[in-house]
Each structure stands twice: as structure tokens, then as C-alpha cells.
Amino acid sequence: MPARLRQLPGPELGAVLARIDEATLSGEPPDTADLRAAVKHFLAVLAARAPGKSVEVRVPPYAAVQCVEGARHIRGKPPAVVETEAVTWIALARGQLGFVEAVDAGRVRASGERSDLTEHLPLV
Fold first, then answer.
1. Of 42, 65, 84, 117, most Cβ neighbours within 10 A?
2. E strands present in 29-97
């Protein structure tokens, strides 16, 4: 069952991202609830800006979304999959990390047609 995604209001998103940044700068892991909120927010933004069902973007264990126009995925393996962890997804969405750079560094696994999200990022 897909995770419920929702875009956060500006002030709430700002507070979540500030706490993530503060934790990162202090060398502490960000709060799980903050990571979950930011991941779901940015996945919701991606789905709204690039509607479709041809690419599945996964950020385990928090959420996944299908997006980008093209061949529709009904069941089984999607035609394109992008998977990464939360901190990388948030950095991509914020423009702090480039998609190709993240793939080359092994921080993003992308396979299949349309799996290059460069034209859809950043999301802020």
C-alpha cells in the first residue's frame, strides 16, 4: 500500500529542513520523523510536477511514488526504478546534489527508461 504523501506548508517545511540541517552540521543523525516528513513532502511535490506511472521513486523505509509520463506500470516490476536513502533524496530535492553526480557516486540506483530525473530536480 502506498504511503500517504503530503506537501508541508512552507513554515513547517522550513522548520523540518532547519532541524535536519542542524543535526547534520552537528554530526548527529537527523530525527526519523523529520526525515519522513521531508521525504514524503518532496515525493508529493515530484508526483504533482511530473505526473505519470512510468517511474517508481523509492526512498525506503519512508515512501515510494510513481511519476513521470510514459508506459503505465500496473503490476510486477516497474519499467523504471530510482531508489535512494532519505538524506540523499532530500539533498537532490533541494538542489544540494546533482542527480548524475549521485548516481555516479552510488548514492542513487537508477534503472530503466526515463529513470534519469535530472529534468525534474531540484524541487525547491
1. 42
2. 55-59, 63-67, 80-84
Residue in the block written with cell 515525493: 43
Cα four-point dihedral sign 1, 112, 77, 50: positive
106, amino acid identity: G
Exposed / middle / buried, residue 99 (Cβ in 10 Å: 0-12, 13-18, 19+): buried
Across 23-53, b (16+ Cβ under 10 Å) vs e yields eeeeeeebeeebbbbbbbbbbbbbbeebeeb
Q: Do the domain assignments include residue 4? A: no
- CATH number of the structural domain spanning residue 31: 3.30.1050.40
Q: pLDDT digits over 54-87, tens only?
A: 999 999 999 999 999 986 656 667 789 999 999 9
Taking the C-alpha atoms of residue 14 and residue 53, their distance in angstroms, rounded to an integer, is 29
Residue 3 pLDDT > 60: no
Which amino acid does the sequence have at 43? L
Residue 2, in any domain of the structure = no
Q: What's the number of domains the chain is made of?
A: 1
